[in-house]
Write a structure and sequence with these properties.
The complex is a heterodimer. Chain A has a 6-stranded mixed beta sheet with strand order 6-7-8-3-9-10, sandwiched between helices. A 4-stranded antiparallel beta sheet of chain A has the order 2-1-4-5, with helices on one face. Chain A has a single domain, classed as 3-Layer(aba) Sandwich (Rossmann fold), CATH 3.40.50.300. In chain A, about 35% of the residues lie in helices and about 30% in strands. The longest helix of chain A has 16 residues. In chain A, about 45% of the residues are buried. By secondary structure, chain B is of the alpha+beta class. Chain B has 20 helices and 18 strands. Classes of the chains: A alpha/beta, B alpha+beta. Chains A and B meet through helix 2, helix 3 and helix 4 of A and helix 1, helix 15 and helix 20 of B.
Chain lengths: ~240, ~525
């Protein structure tokens, strides 16, 4: 297996804001190793989230390539990209983005249900396995007692842990976190960060967007987006995974 | 399969879905009620028209009737017996019915019938009141008034033939409630507790149950003519069986002239009352014996001074075809038979007879009622068009509701796309959701609609009790005394399927919009 999970080369992305075209990314490139904890930093509006969305296959660049496991993400079919989003990537959002009509357990099950075929559903296996795995995942993030609660009955930290469990349920090789602590108080933020570090120690590759240097200090590598390009800064703990 | 899961979740957690369900339910309710009542009305018109008229009618175009009717009936019953089951002549006239004891006077459509044949050609015999409890006692021959009395044990009783007939009815009656109802009000000779003394012969010293008064021909009267209709749909009968009545009518000669004599006044006795369910008939129909009326109206055969005869005349021949004979084919055969019959008649016909015969028409019951049935059918179609427009409004409403739902769910759509859901899958959630709304709404609407239609007469009675002006079904306008209240399963299935389809159509555009939502934009949506 290659030690690199992902290569982004010369990513360009601009947005049309009325009559003005805003160039957000102007040739951003990065290589991501397996098991790496990478932090992307930068000023507001510099294109951190845009980069994350492009890495996750949610957005398409104007120019540039993205290779995941040697497969070019943007020349692949829509179906491949859906599978990529569903199985290879897990998303964690700043505002959790849980489905309010569903319970905690159902939210975590959802990626499995999206993946399940009609036959798997009808035979009952898909739902049963999803329920079992989601319960186990929620147990892992310390929410075993909250399975039947609705998102609005949870604290911000708990919601984010549900979002992490949801992102991990399909065992993605890459976890993309968009300011996961940005909406939490310091204690809660620290708790979530500890969880992410723990996951990374378990071998999970993580790309996290943040503008908080304290949060960034937990990563192996820190990248800064300035004027649409990525610049590397050495992480405080410096260590790079050798996978 | 998350589509089913989320659609179900949205269906029972979203308040807005409740409004969409209500919109569908109301539309289904309206359409089902209108379709059932209008459809039931058309069906009733058809059923009752056939019940009253039988299959084929040979009718004179003039009031004075047509001759040689009996000869034609004989031809039908001998040469066309494989098609014609039975044929009977009738006379139609106009008159005034009076009940001398109460001075009640009513305009009357007088029909002279041969009762034993007439009850075989149509459903007339099924609507008799007294004949139900005393089967075989209704006839149009000479009769006196039956009075109640006391038996040897001092118990109230009726004349022996009524007692016997009643026992026969009891043995045949399968509905215990009907027997219980009779026992609660045993002397159905009067049919109500008021005016009870009139079932006894107050002028006689004989305390036995007997027949009293002079013998007069019997008359069967439409039930709305002499009885009082109750709110529950029953009748309060003030005039007992056998009460004396007078029918005054006018005789018309073979040439169509009034005879010049005073109107004919015929003393009669109430033999029974008839309920056809058609208000227009029940409020003025009077049935008397054919031969008696023919004679009284001067329509019977009479010798002329030159030794020839004026032919007896009838207004109609009512014909029932054998089961399985196609109506129009049967009518065609009878038309041909009539043409051949006319050709075979003596060459030198009386001028009046020749003219009368020229006005005779052979029609099916459908042709006779085509104007009325056609009008009602058109009214039904018009109503369906109006309701169709209302349903289109409901589709637009569902479209708006779903557009709002999609707008509100934009962020969730982004999340689902981030989790790997396809645009088709996202659209599928809202299509399934709409189908769920359609199914829930249509089942609710159909359920309440069916209940409403089933109890529509009771609901009307209740409204009428609140305020008489709230009575919406006037039998004088709609002919039938009760609102049609039959819900056809075929109608329900069609309406439910159309409602579900309409809901899906209404949600299609919002669902397509949902499927095309760009995930990044959706995730940034606040």
């Amino acid at each position: 297996m290659s030690k690199y999970l992902l290569h982004a080369r010369g990513i360009h992305k601009s947005y049309q804001m009325g009559r003005v075209s805003v160039r957000v990314l102007q040739g951003a490139s990065l290589d991501l190793r397996n098991g790496e904890f990478l932090v992307v930093m930068g000023a507001s509006g510099c294109g951190k989230s845009t980069l994350l969305h492009i890495l996750g296959g949610l957005d398409t660049p104007d120019r540039g390539t993205l290779e995941f496991d040697r497969q070019d993400v943007f020349t692949a079919s829509d179906a491949w990209r859906r599978t990529y989003r569903s199985l290879s990537v897990g998303f964690i959002f700043q505002f959790y983005h849980l489905l309010p009509e569903c319970t905690v357990l159902e939210n975590v099950m959802m990626p499995r249900l999206v993946k399940a075929s009609a036959m798997q559903w009808l035979l009952g296996g898909a739902k049963r396995t999803a329920r079992r795995d989601a319960s186990a995942m929620l147990d892992r993030v310390g929410l075993a007692e909250r399975l039947q609660h609705r998102p609005n009955e949870l604290s911000g930290g708990e919601r984010q842990r549900v979002a992490i469990a949801r992102a991990l349920i399909n065992g993605p090789r890459l976890l993309l976190a968009d300011e996961p602590t940005g909406n939490l108080d310091a204690a809660m933020g620290e708790e979530i960060l500890r969880l992410l570090v723990e996951l990374n120690r378990g071998g999970q590759t993580i790309v996290m967007v943040t503008h908080d240097p304290k949060v960034a200090s937990h990563a192996h590598r820190r990248l800064h987006i300035r004027a649409g390009v990525i610049e590397e800064a050495k992480a405080r703990n410096g260590a790079r995974p050798e996978r | 399969m998350y589509k089913w899961f989320l659609a179900w979740r949205y269906l029972h957690t979203k308040l807005i879905a409740f409004f969409a369900v209500c919109a569908v339910a109301l539309c289904v309710f309206m359409v089902l009620v209108a379709m059932s009542v209008m459809g039931g009305f058309v069906d009733k018109v058809r059923e009752r028209s056939r019940g009253l008229l039988s299959d084929v009618i040979v009718e004179a175009g003039t009031m004075q009737g047509f001759p040689y009717y009996q000869k034609f009936i004989d031809v039908l019953m001998s040469d066309h017996r494989d098609v014609v089951q039975i044929a009977t002549p009738t006379i139609v006239a106009y008159g005034i019915l009076r009940v001398p004891d109460t001075t009640l006077t009513r305009p009357a459509d007088v029909r002279g019938i041969k009762l034993d044949e007439y009850v075989q050609v149509n459903t007339f015999g099924q609507g008799f009141h007294y004949d139900r409890y005393y089967p075989g006692t209704t006839h149009l021959g000479l009769q006196r008034q039956p009075f109640a009395g006391f038996d040897a044990d001092g118990a109230l009783t009726l004349p022996p033939d009524h007692v016997k007939a009643n026992e026969k009815w009891r043995r045949a009656e399968t509905d215990p409630k009907a027997i219980a109802d009779y026992d609660a009000e045993p002397f159905r000779l009067r049919g109500s507790s008021e005016g009870g003394d009139r079932i006894f012969d107050v002028d006689s010293t004989d305390i036995r149950a007997v027949y009293g008064g002079d013998a007069f021909p019997g008359v069967i009267v439409g039930c709305d003519m002499i009885n009082e209709r109750t709110r529950e749909g029953g009748y309060k009968r003030w005039d007992p069986r056998g009460i004396r009545m007078t029918l005054t009518t006018i005789a018309i000669t073979a040439s169509g002239n009034l005879t010049g004599e005073a109107p004919v006044s015929i003393p009669l006795r109430l033999a029974d009352d008839s309920h056809t369910g058609v208000y227009e008939v029940d409020v003025k129909a009077v049935y008397v014996d054919f031969d008696m009326l023919q004679k009284k109206l001067g329509m019977n055969a009479m010798p002329r001074g030159d030794g020839t005869f004026i032919q007896a005349r009838a207004k109609q021949i009512i014909i029932r075809l054998h089961e399985g004979i196609e109506l129009n084919a049967g009518a065609d055969e009878i038309r041909t038979a009539w043409t051949e019959f006319l050709a075979a008649l003596p060459v030198q016909l009386d001028l009046n007879d020749e003219r009368s015969l020229g006005f005779v028409r052979v029609s099916t019951w459908e042709e006779m009622q085509s104007t009325f049935i056609g009008a009602v059918e058109k009214e039904k179609i018009l109503m369906m068009v109006i309701l169709g427009v209302i349903s289109i409004v409901a589709i637009v409403l569902i479209g708006c509701v779903f557009y709002m739902i999609v707008e509100k769910k934009t962020r969730d759509i982004g999340v689902l796309k981030a989790l790997g859901a396809s645009g088709t899958g996202i659209a599928g959630i809202f299509i399934t959701y709409a189908a769920g709304v359609g199914a829930a709404g249509s089942i609710l609407g159909a359920g309440f609609g069916a209940l409403f239609v089933h109890y529509i007469n009771e609901i009307q009675a209740l409204l009428e009790r609140v305020h008489p002006q709230l009575r919406v079904w006037n039998p004088e306008i709609y002919s039938f005394d009760r609102i049609p209240n039959v819900v056809k399963p075929d109608d329900v299935i069609t309406i439910v399927l159309v409602a579900i389809t309409a809901a899906v159509i209404g949600a299609t555009i919002p669902a397509i919009i949902a499927g095309r939502v760009w995930p990044v934009k959706a995730l940034r949506y606040e």
